[in-house]
Write a structure and sequence with these properties.
alpha/beta, 6-stranded mixed sheet, about 625 residues, globular
Amino acid sequence: MADVEAALDAAGLKNPRVREFVAEYAELTGAERIEVVGAADDARLIQEALDAGELHPAGEGLYYSRSYYKDTARSEERTIVATNDEKDKGVYNNWRPASEMKPLLHDSMRGASVGKTMYVIPYLMSPPGNALAPWAAGVQLTDTRTVVLHMIRMSRVAPHFLDELDDPDHFVRAVHVTGDLENLGQGTERDQRYFVTVADERTILHFGSSYGGNALLGKIAHGLRQGAYDGWASKKFLAEQYMLIGIHDNETGKDYHICGGFPSASGKTNLAMMLAPDVLGERYHVSFYGDDIAWLWVDEESGRLMGMNPEYGVFGVAKDTNERTNPTALHSIDPGTDAIFTNVAYNPTTGEVWWEGRTPSPPSNVHGWLDWTGSPLADRKDSDSSPWAHPNSRFTTTLANVPNIAEDFDAAAGVPIDAIIFGGRTRDREPLIRAIHDLAEGVYDGLTLGAEATAAAEGKEGVLRYDPMSNRPFMAYGEGDYAQHYLDVVGAATDQPIFAHVNWFQRDPQDGHFLWPGYRDNLRPLLWLLQLRNGEVTGRQTPVGIVPTEEELNLEGVDISPKDLETILTIDNARWQQEMANRAEHLEQFDRMPEAIWEAHRRVAKALEADGA
């Protein structure tokens, strides 16, 4: 058994509640030794991981890792929010009683770390000194060194964050035990994995993975699920799966900030890392704050809705990341950045990595290349067209490596939010952008956010898979209570943000081409939105919001036909009336949905009916 007291003394970790927590789980798991880590240990831990074969060199200051082949992504069906009150049960949060889940997880973890090191990771999911810092401190225990290296990139890691708490007991207790990955029955009736957030006890217990959000407990489990529950319980903030960007106008000197939620495969990361189009680059500069999570609160002095990214890094999807789609992301993993690639294709001889979409074609000489499972590509049969990299392969890098990172990304104050946008991938129905001034209608729009069902997702073709606020996999409590809390937090701001819905993915029904060029040109509708908020343009009122006129959009240098432009700035009333019936069915499944949301639904439905008459 590990000498817990000696290890914590040597690390200078004094918080008595943290010490009790570490001792409890060291005894439960049977860890052989304890090691407290901080960001200053990164270089040593990388070398240890290289020596142990857990990492491999992938160029100067770049590293490659590979997870177990059945352990490659989040597992929503094994992810649970547990509390001591059944009223916290929602449609999407897989609620279970804490009295059931805690003993189950403890039984799985008992003795599972015999012979292993238990790493103690004291972390902070906010800029130091931020208004929400009291809810941002946590300690993760893990038995996997690569998890430590990812956490150092994704959060602020140092023992003093826990020793300086006003209340030494107010931190998230997070425990990650990998388990015997080859014998967990992943995806079968014998599946032993559980990823549980005991939200009202501020405890996270994850067993059965060493990958991504299943193992980096500061990220989704704390940053979204626990953060959302804490925000609701305290009545002080929202924790959302939102990107956050800044736009600086060099001509006026003004700064604007936009956050927003997008379901999977709807362009969130590319938007978050967007650069201004060349023709607008002299006037506008886009700054990156974050691509995945934003915490929002109202500053009592200014009355502004404020936002910050609780993360310290980017855990990006590699697939289709290239110089055209996202040069910002690509240069955030340049040589010397200490970035870690996971489950991409790898050439151990040259240290090169590759994934689908990085270049138009894979390397022509396959000799020496291994696919994401570690199998030699040269041994494949000609008929084998399976991907070289896993579709959920990732790169992990710190925010400071992002070329256009905002100068104040880690400032305690956060930034004022001017607009909240939502966007789903739909081939029709949704115009390029539609703005909403009314708070209840904006929240209603977010609650009915969705993307079209695909072959990989359940649902009928053309019918949206709803993803409220893009938070469906991360809901921590009941959706009706969530809607009311959202109305309360944003409604407390004296200077309200404007809401909008965007869609870069309309297609021509005949030949299937995208009607809008997307990528860097997506800045143009956002600039129009800010002008609308400032009263500089008026747009055209429709039943579902305000859309730009063709004259109001800055289209200098955009290659788009008049017909396509007209289509993306037009509302298809018949399709929308069909959509309203689906929205009603979607909202009816949630308990305690605020009447204000139903009133917003009825207003939009009535306006569509009148417009279509």
